[in-house]
Each structure stands twice: as C-alpha cells, then as structure tokens.
Amino acid sequence: GASAAAARAGPRVPLSAVMGARVALLCANDDYAGVPGLPDLKFAVADCRLYAQALRDIGFDHVEVRTNAQCTKAGIEDALEDIKQKFGGRQVAQFFFGYMGHGVHDAPSGRGWIAPHGYDPSRRGTTALRMDRLRDSAEDIGATQQLWVLDCCHAGALMRGSRGGDDDAPVDRA
User: Is the pTM value of this prediction over 0.85?
Assistant: First the structure.
C-alpha cells in the first residue's frame, strides 16, 4: 500500500535542504486615491494574498508581502535590498517577485514603470519604479531560478532590451 511505498522512498528531505532557499516578494496596491487617470483597483491585494498562500503551500521558505501603504517605491526597494543582504549570492535557489497594481508607460523613452502606493505622475522618478531597474535587481539576488510576475499595464517593458542587441534593430523573419 501507500505506507509501504513511503517506507521504500526513505525519509523526506525538505527541498530547501537540497537546493537552497525559496524566497518571494509580493507587492500589491489597490489604493490610487487622488492619482489622475489611475482608478482604485478592486482585486490587486486579494490576488497578492492568493499568490502568498500558494507559494507557502508549495514550500517557499520566505514570503514577504507588502500591500497598499507598505507597497511604495521605497518599501519595494527596501524589501529587495533586504533580500539581497539576507540571501545574496547563490544560496537562493528560487526567487519569485510579484507586483499587482497599475503600470504606466513613458512614451518618449518606451520605458515601463510600476506605479505603487504614493505614485505621483509629476514625480515619477521618485514615486515609481522603472521596470528595467527591477530586472537589474534579479542579478544582485543571484537566484538560479527566478519568476517575475507583473500584473499591470505595460508589463512587457520589464524585458525591454533584455536579450542583448539593439532594441531598434530590425528582426530578420525569413
């Protein structure tokens, strides 16, 4: 039966003991009161909580959640820095970053920005996070496996220019 199969399989070893820590940072904002053109959201924080529970259920060792007033530019940057300090190098086997909220696009540069709590379009550089800077954080964390989920508009800008080469170079489709 099932107990005989379990006995043959031997003792259970936690996945983190074999492959290193599994770390997640989840950030969500529903509250955009007073931000022109960005209505409040209804489900970003609820979705974030579902992600957190699912990651804990599959054995993530460290799941940090920042919602609404905790999900500011500074709050996200501080959390990423804490993760780099705590898990820097190659001891993080898997890193999951999730952001649920509004994203905005800068037409002249083509850059995407996440618009966390406290976002002010007239002060984008000090109240929003450039998506390509988030991608740069991935290298510093050093996880061998990473998943970055941006549940926001303009999320494709996260990967802008990421595969080498010139973004404006023609693509040969022949």
Answer: no
DSSP the chain: -HHHHHHHH-S---HHHHH-EEEEEEEE----TT-TT-PPPSSHHHHHHHHHHHHHHTT-SEEEEEEGGG-SHHHHHHHHHHHHHHH-TT-EEEEEEEEESEEEEETTTTEEEEE-TT--GGGHHHHSEEHHHHHHHHHHH--SEEEEEEESTTGGGGGTTTTSS-TTS-----
Given a contact cutoff of 8 angstroms between Cβ atoms, the answer to whether 79 and 25 are in contact is: yes
Which residue would you say has higher pLDDT here, 92 or 74? 74
The number of beta carbons lying within 10 Å of the beta carbon of residue 43 is: 12
* Position with higher pLDDT, 134 vs 68: 68
* pLDDT tens by residue, 82-109: 888 877 655 667 889 999 999 998 888 7
Whether 133 and 123 have beta carbons less than 8 Å apart is answered as no
pLDDT of residue 111: 82
